[in-house]
Amino acid sequence: MADRLERLTNLVAVLLETRRPLTLEEIVERVPGYPTDRESCRRQFERDKATLREIGVPIALEALHAFEQETGYRIHREDYELPPLDLTDDERVALHLAVTAVRLGGGAAGDGPAGAGREALLKLGGIEGEAAPTLAALPDVPALPALFDAYRRRARVSFTYRGGTRRLDPYGILFRNGHWYVVGWDVDRAAIRAFRADRIESAIEAGAGGAFERPEGFDPASALRDEPWRFGDEEPVEARVLVGPAQAGWVEADLGAAAVAERRDDGSVVVRMAVTNRDAFRSFVLGLLDHAEVLAPAELRADMVAWLSAMANPAEATA
Amino acid sequence: MTRPDAAVRLRRLLTVIPWIIDHQGSTLDDLAARFGIKVAELERDLELVPFCGLPPYTPDRLIDCEIVDGRVFLRFAEYFGRPLRLTPAEGFGLLAAGQALLAVPGADEKGSLASALGKLAGVLGGGDGMAVELGPARYLEPLRAAAAASERVEIDYYTFGRDELTTRRIDPRAVFAAAGQWYVDAYCHKAGDDRLFRVDRVRGVRPTGEHFDAATPSAAGAALFNPRPSDRRLTLLLHRSAAWVAESYPVESVEETADGRLRVVLVASERAWRERLLLRLGPAAEVVDPADVRVEAAEAARRLLERYG
Fold this sequence. Notes:
The structure holds 2 protein chains of 2 kinds.
Chain A: H1 2-17, H2 24-30, H3 38-54, E1 60-63, E2 71-74, H4 77-80, H5 89-101, E3 102-104, H6 112-123, E4 136-138, H7 144-153, E5 157-161, E6 164-176, E7 179-186, E8 191-196, E9 205-206, H8 220-223, E10 237-243, H9 245-255, E11 260-263, E12 269-275, H10 278-287, E13 292-296, H11 298-312, H12 314-318
Parallel strand pairs in A: 3-4
Antiparallel strand pairs in A: 1-2, 5-6, 5-9, 6-7, 7-8, 10-12, 10-13, 11-12
Chain B: H1 6-22, E1 26-27, H2 28-34, H3 39-48, E2 64-68, E3 71-75, H4 88-102, H5 112-124, E4 130-132, H6 140-148, E5 151-159, E6 164-178, E7 181-188, E8 193-198, E9 202-211, E10 233-238, H7 244-248, E11 251-256, E12 262-267, H8 271-281, E13 285-289, H9 291-305
Antiparallel strand pairs in B: 1-3, 2-3, 5-6, 5-9, 6-7, 7-8, 10-12, 10-13, 11-12
């Protein structure tokens, strides 16, 4: 094991220091420890290369000279080195609190993605100060590192979502209501769209960096509309819903005070809701059970009555 | 514990060497603590360093690593002067954790964490397009304060599953965010047991002037949702359009039927919770078992219809 670590360390040093790409033969000359048999040597080098890529060492494969077929390997220093961050001790203490207080993926510290934040911290100068008790647990989603990388490089991505292929310029990444979203410009729909990262059904394919400009002042939080009854392409309709006193406070906090059209003496409120998705609207009202009633418009009230009537008489509905 | 493989050790070496170059004479103890490893592991890694370097591997081309009185000195390794840049997973993990902590109400928006994240975002690129929201909750701060001071409080709590408002005395041990909600892990004097309360369903918090023993370990915080064997199970056949149920709730089993529907079993012990789910799903769900739940949904629909009479 020690031999391999020694060889890998020397390999990184040689590839960092070379001023031109090195062929496999040249690498083997310079880095001791490769088998003499050509085929096993190649296999060993492939394994070493995979190990280096696994830990994030950027190995470039380049033509030896212009117009030549033969290729060689090198590591460009500017792709390898972490730019200086000049963190203060206090800032490292704060980051250490963050990676211990916030768990990603529910794993224990040191495992999987939870460990990734800690690994990052080590590169930034290591652990400083005390650990914090768990304050928040965020889900981990396999697509996130690739989406994040595309977002920071401004690379266009494509992926499968609900059975279709989507092309997106990722402007931002947002965590809201327990879910991760990628928000950006949907190339084919020519509109801002948000996608739940955990519902992406394929690997993320990313193109070249610098492919788009993010709009000035883009804010993912305001781009992702929170209210599901607004997520839709139906003709917009303003609904009025009466909410009983037991739920009035919560509904007002959820929709905002501006949504309140009327306050009644018994503590109930009438709220206005802009509806472009009738299914989501009905779901919201039904979630309030006996505490809510659709007042207007007549059309949405009739929808609700029809829905409830079908459920009240299941035999008729299926007959 | 399994022996760390070459990838783990190489990553560690490429991280520790730059720090030592910048901090000559660091002690083994400090380095081990800083990089989260045992002193013996660190020594084993450093023993290897003098054999590494550049061709032709003559003494002037090998890394010079000396340990004198427990202090480490490194020379001739300028090419390892900077750590390796962050992988996407590392950059994302650190930024996400930092932004989550900063999103906790009461966090200092101008403090060390905010400035550290600013520097990090500057190096990683992307700008300010990443945001973490942990959601506001009206009584979060008094509950966090009570937990921090081990103060018993009286709360008004809306029990979603039964659609009722209750008042109870609780010993709040910890407050945390998970699955998109804030929770209080507490001993509940009304239930005589540990409970998790959703902070957004707390409708009032009052001090009692009493303190509790903070040393008592909690049983509620271990899992967010601990079904008991006696809890009621509900078996549903879901139409494709209702497949989100299997994603959004902890289901005990999911299987696809021959006609393309999903057969799911979930724990649903509270009647109001079941009513809400079934009313929302409507024709997209069929209750397979138990039969009386089918009747419940129809009854609930008739009850709500009375308002529209």
